[in-house]
Amino acid sequence: MKIFRNLLWTLVFLSLVATGIYWFQRRTPANATAFRTETVNRGELLVSISATGTIEPEDVIDVGAQVAGLILDFGRDAEGKTIDYGSNVKKDMVLAHIDDTLYAAQTAEATAQLESAKATLQRSKADIGQAQAKLKQSEDDWKRAVKLGPSKALSQTSYDGYKAAFDTAKAAVAVAEATIVQAKAGVAQADAALQRVRRNLDYCTIKSPVDGVIIDRRVNIGQTVVASLNAPSLFLLAADLKHMQVWVAVNEADIGKIHEGTPVSYTVDAFPNEKFKGEVSKIRLNASMTQNVVTYTVEITTDNSNGRLLPYLTANVRFELDRRKDVLMVPNGALRWTPNSDQIDPAFRDSLNQRKGRKEGKDKQTKAAGTPPITGQDEKNGNGTLWTLQDNKTRPVKIRTGQSDGVMTEVEGEELSEGLTVVTGVESPSGRAGGAETNPFAPKLPGGRGGGGGPR
User: 226, 258 in Cβ contact below 8 A?
Assistant: First the structure.
């Protein structure tokens, strides 16, 4: 019996609730609307361009190998640890050793060839001394033969023999001099060959060209590197991670607004609550095109003294084009929204309709020329209209627009003041948005009405 009584009271309560909802809906007009409003605020407006970039080391060096061979071992970094990712290194510090057995043998061979060439030069010098001595003797003999001449004391055969010996001795000296020149050239050639193989031997020890940090180690111990037309890359070295760059791809429509020295702020996903600063240092002229979109690479310099920024992080960049302080601002939706005629205060409706007629005529001319008409804001002249509420009817407020950050727009006007309430749209009782803020892709339900350009 108790259960039945509780069930009865529950049914009575639900009936009363349903009846109340029914009479409330009957008493509420189906086309009742509520205005969505915002207030005019005073503050700082930042005009910016947003883009996405990548953090890059300021100076990256690709350390390669100029000789082929087996990687024997790695060197030690500034802390005495084996060279690896993130190692801090100093200039001329050993990074790795390549097997130098073949190059050491070539060096020994080249050294022996140089010593042989030097010995040949020494022999050539001794030979020319001997040839010069013989030349002196044959010259003296020839001089005595010339004095005596062919006679009973000196036969013609002996006379001719002295002359031939003298000529032969001069030729021998010339040959010895040429041999010395050849021997000197041989020494120089052997010395050059020795320098070459010594340099190849030195290349077996990979050294750091600058002070920096190892970003990437691309080889392992026991791996064979082969140097051919291109030097194989062993390490990627960043010269200084205390100063970084951000490379940003900027659309061609925005590149004209950016110049060297433009201040920049950006965030990275690794530190979402921290904002970093920088400035534009260079605009590269070699544009790229992807799917018919032309972009230019802009280089931004930024400080990384604390070492928090890591290479190749994605940066969400804002180029700060202009900063307007202590200005009145309204949401852009307030500038785009236009009420229906029945939502306008009757005291202003007639004059607005007259102006609307003249404007529609201009819009038709503009449309014929191929330019879309401007409804809420005259972008060419910087003039616009805001709508305020009085007795649930809207009244126009003429304003002049300034800079915009894409969400808020700077405005000024004689009737404007901080805290003034302006309309941004309407909502039907069902919660369906009206006006300029209505989603054009949302399904439209029957009934109701909203603002934004005229009756539905």
Answer: no
Question: Could you tell me if 85 and 215 are in contact, meaning their C-beta atoms sit under 8 angstroms apart?
Answer: yes
| Contact partners, residue 106, CB within 8 Å, separation at least 6 | 197, 200, 201
Q: For residues 331 and 337, what is the distance between their CA atoms, to the nearest angstrom? A: 11
Residue entry with tokens 């302080």: 325
The C-alpha angle with vertex 437 and arms to 432 and 442, in degrees rounded to 5, equals 50
249 is written with which tokens?
């791809």
- HSE, CB side, 13 Å, CA atoms: give it for residue 369: 9
Each residue's pLDDT expressed in tens, for the chain with a length of 456 residues = 556 666 666 766 666 666 665 554 554 455 545 889 999 999 999 999 999 999 999 889 999 999 999 999 999 998 999 999 999 999 999 999 999 999 999 999 999 999 999 998 888 888 888 888 877 887 777 777 777 776 656 777 777 777 787 788 788 888 888 888 888 899 999 999 999 999 999 999 999 999 999 999 999 999 999 877 677 899 999 988 889 999 999 999 999 999 999 999 999 999 999 999 999 999 999 999 999 999 999 999 999 999 899 999 999 999 999 989 999 999 999 999 988 888 888 877 766 665 665 555 555 554 554 444 434 455 455 788 899 988 888 899 999 999 988 899 999 998 888 999 999 988 755 544 444 444 555 454 444 333 444 333
DSSP string, 179-248: HHHHHHHHHHHHHHHHHHHHHHHHHTEEE-SSSEEEEEE---TTPEE--SSSPPEEEEEES-TTEEEEEE
331 C-beta neighbours (distance < 10 Å), count: 18
Assigned token pair, 72: 């024997």
Query: How far apart are alpha carbons 420 and 418 in whole angstroms?
Result: 6
pTM: 0.64
